From TrEMBL:
It comes from Paenibacillus sacheonensis. One of its GO terms (biological process) is 'de novo' GDP-L-fucose biosynthetic process. The keyword NADP applies. Residues 5-309 form the NAD(P)-binding domain. Catalyzes the conversion of GDP-D-mannose to GDP-4-dehydro-6-deoxy-D-mannose. It comes from the Bacteria. Keywords: Lyase, NADP. Its cofactor is NADP(+). This is GDP-mannose 4,6-dehydratase. The gene is gmd. Belongs to the NAD(P)-dependent epimerase/dehydratase family. GDP-mannose 4,6-dehydratase subfamily. Transmembrane segments: none annotated. GO terms for molecular function: GDP-mannose 4,6-dehydratase activity; NADP+ binding. It catalyses: GDP-alpha-D-mannose = GDP-4-dehydro-alpha-D-rhamnose + H2O.
Length: 329
């Protein structure tokens, strides 16, 4: 039986990856930081199957201990401050959690279990103000946010540990991927949650930033399969994972609102607080290398993804409303 250690297991990707690895018969260790109110929502179905370890990305001692206890064959480093917009008001915390923490994790593996295979969650945000379209593994980086800058550091330190210490370290350059487990502040989930609330009469409007931004949006459940595939190859390497299709935020609104027979133009209010100091205008990935080398493929397309998210938000908001009614709130 193989053993995996996942950081960020309570997040969107961590929860899908843990499910995938459990299905494959792995023993799964999950690193969780201490929070005042435990957050198990994404892993509620598999909570008892995960071996929980307490640790923080910025505490090297706790990471060394996590690697020692789990003795993993594979380490998936998914934990990070992952919300781009929060990286301007919190640039130092972002650098610590999204950049330096990668070195902490690599050091823990190098010291305790150097033959473990290592996956780093890199990001298309590194391409930022893109210098070519579509973006592939060889496209130069031009990050546009403190988050993007931090991810570039995480990417290169992973490559460096591979080249310096001969570690099996891979960097997955993943384009945006979403799901019903996406955090509520990210644009897809913000929209699908608002659609559900507006449809059910508990919200009147949605306040948005730049509707012209273009993204290459896929389904997180498909993308975690690529993470696993990268660690099953003979040689470590870096791969772009994307759909190869681009849609605007405006199109996202159109698809989500029209699914419940509403017109987004009746509800969207542009609010400058959601416009970023420096924007990534477009991202479009070319994942030919992943398709050819890993045999990776997509199962869920853009419309199916947004419809799935609206359906799940409708269910959740309805059950919240029933709960409030029962409680007399
Ligand atoms: P997410 O839902 O925000 O999950 C982030 C995870 O990191 C959470 O489990 C969080 O724990 C944990 N974490 C944050 N700070 C930590 C700390 N100091 N110590 C320990 N754990 C900490 O992110 P995601 O969408 O699943 O993304 C996973 C990774 O892929 C991230 O590194 C992200 O930057 C990267 N990425 C994501 C995308 C995308 O489109 N989703 C694309 C490219 C790259 P709590 O539950 O306690 O907050
Ligand atoms: O959903 P977003 O916040 O995702 P963003 O910034 O592209 O970052 C996500 O994808 C990256 C991969 O490229 C990951 F590395 C990162 O961790 C994260 O998962 O914003 C998408 C676009 C942006 O252009 C933003 O300006 O939507 C635009 N937008 C317009 N109005 C908005 C809003 N974004 C948010 N969050 N909220 C708005 O009201």
């Amino acid at each position: 039986m193989k053993t995996a250690l996942i950081t960020g297991v309570t997040g969107q990707d961590g929860s899908y990856l843990a499910e995938l690895l459990l299905d494959k018969g792995y023993k799964v260790f999950g690193l969780r930081r201490r929070t005042s109110t435990p957050n198990y929502e994404n892993v509620i179905r598999i909570k008892d199957k995960i071996h929980w370890l307490s640790g923080d990305l910025n505490d090297l001692a706790s990471l060394i201990e996590a690697v020692r206890i789990s003795n993993p064959d594979e380490v998936y480093n998914l934990a990070a401050q992952s919300f781009v917009a929060a990286s301007w008001p919190q640039p130092i915390a972002t650098a610590q959690m999204t950049a330096l923490a990668v070195t902490n994790m690599l050091e823990a593996v190098r010291i305790v279990k150097p033959d473990a295979r290592f996956y780093q969650a890199s990001s298309s945000e590194m391409f930022g103000k893109v210098v070519e379209t579509p973006q592939k593994e060889t496209t130069p980086f031009y990050p546009r946010s403190p988050y993007g800058v931090a991810k570039v550091y995480g990417h290169w330190i992973t490559v460096n540990y591979r080249e310096s210490f001969n570690m099996f370290a891979c960097s997955g350059i993943l384009f945006n991927h979403e799901s019903p487990r996406r955090g509520l502040e990210f644009v897809t989930r913000k929209v699908t949650d608002a659609v559900a609330r507006i449809k059910l009469g508990v919200q009147n409007e949605i306040r948005m930033g730049n509707l012209d931004a273009l993204r290459d949006w896929g389904f997180a459940g498909d993308y975690v399969k690529a993470m696993w595939l990268m660690l099953q190859q003979d040689e470590p390497d870096d791969f772009v994972i994307s759909t190869g299709e681009m849609h605007s935020v405006r199109e996202l609104l159109e698809v989500a609102f029209s699914y419940v027979n509403l017109n987004y133009k009746d509800y969207v209010v542009i609010d400058s607080q959601f416009v970023r100091p420096a924007e990534v205008e477009l991202l479009l990935g070319d994942c030919t290398k992943a398709k050819e080398t890993l045999g990776w493929k997509l199962d869920v397309d853009f419309k199916q993804l947004i419809h799935m998210m609206v359906d799940e938000d409708l269910k959740r908001v309805k059950s919240e409303m029933r709960y409030y009614e029962l409680m007399g709130i």
